[in-house]
Specification:
Strand order of the largest sheet: 18-15-17-16-20-21-19-22
Structural class: alpha+beta
Distance between the termini: 29 Å
Strand content: 25-35%
Radius of gyration: 22 Å
Largest sheet: 8 strands, antiparallel
Number of helices: 14
Helix content: 25-40%
Shape: globular
Low-confidence stretches: 1-7
Length: 446
Amino acid sequence: MSGTTTAGSGSSRTASGPWRNWAGNVTSRPVREVSPASAEELAEAVRRAAEDGLRVKTVGTGHSFTSIAATDGVLIRPGLLTGIRRIDREAMTVTVESGTPLKRLNVALAREGLSLTNMGDIMEQTVAGATSTGTHGTGRDSASTAAQIRALELVTADGHLLTCSEKENPEVFAAARIGLGALGVITAITFAVEPVFLLTAREEPMTFDRVTSEFDALHAENEHFEFYWFPHTDNCNTKRNNRSAGPAAPPGRISGWVEDELLSNGVFQLACSLGRAVPPVVPALAKVSSRALSARTYTDIPYKVFTSPRRVRFVEMEYALPREAAVAALREVKAMVERSPLKVSFPVEVRTAPADDIPLSTASGRETAYIAVHLYKGTPHRAYFTAVERIMTAHGGRPHWGKLHTRDAAYLSEAYPRFAEFTALRDRLDPDRLFANDYLRRVLGD
């Protein structure tokens, strides 16, 4: 087909060019793009694609580093499927359209005096993109964004709209909360919410040896604990977020801008660019960067504490390990960097999550710690990521579905006790693999 056709207020058009993800490391060339304005239009687009023999993928804001959203068939853009459908104050839930960016959801909830319990460290992604790939923050007791789902609506490969919850289609609900786009296209999600609360963030530099030796205590004593280690140094920056009775005391306008924009984005961008151009200067820059951020404490509503602007583009790999293996694995990463010629300009991020009951959640069935490694966009990453991945897999690591890794279905079926449960459900819901692509063939098998 060519040109643009409009049904309702949605549209379908021949793809005008390649699609690229946020980091610029994944490109795909869909035959056509569809922007449905309702669940019914989306279902129709899925039926048409099946009739035309084209595969279907949905793309949110492209924040995955893997090719999980890439397709040579029909690319569904959910930009018109946004907004809150309803707030149920009795059940304490909010139902949102799948293309709603987390940023818009957080702001809208705050306006209503509500909040999600936990969230990741950025909020650019759509709700469906974030949950489908297992996006998470850090938490001793509160789990990933997907673990907060109470119901969801899904268009399956036969073009039907399926409503799923613990009571309705419970086996689909169990798996589809983190469905990788393999079970259908999500059109709406219902999240558990709670009255908005205050968090006090305490950011403090610590030495690597102190953080790793006190890791279990820091995890146990804080509702949300995370830290960043700066390679080529013994310096870490820690962050502890705990609920507070208030009053709110947000960062000062100028000091907040200096920490979050000037240092964390502006100066860091310059340091990364210089390090990419002249790798030998990276260790010296790391020492300066790791000392630039000072201790600070502030109190604000959750999304303003959990999330930060991330303007420096990068590629990332993250592994979920049994929590008890995290310190040993991180020490191995540090030793590997120190004895290698690698020059690593980005800090290594460590977070935690409680066990959950979602089959393909990286925290499925086990207390988890996450170790994430990043490199500035355009920096050769293979040597570093391969060396880190070797360490992570030796500890039974599970890769984040939206971040770079080389694992396949043979490995993942061993790493996830409920892997076969998910693939059996996929066989039932999408026997002809309408929602398949190269990435899903690798990680789930055919």
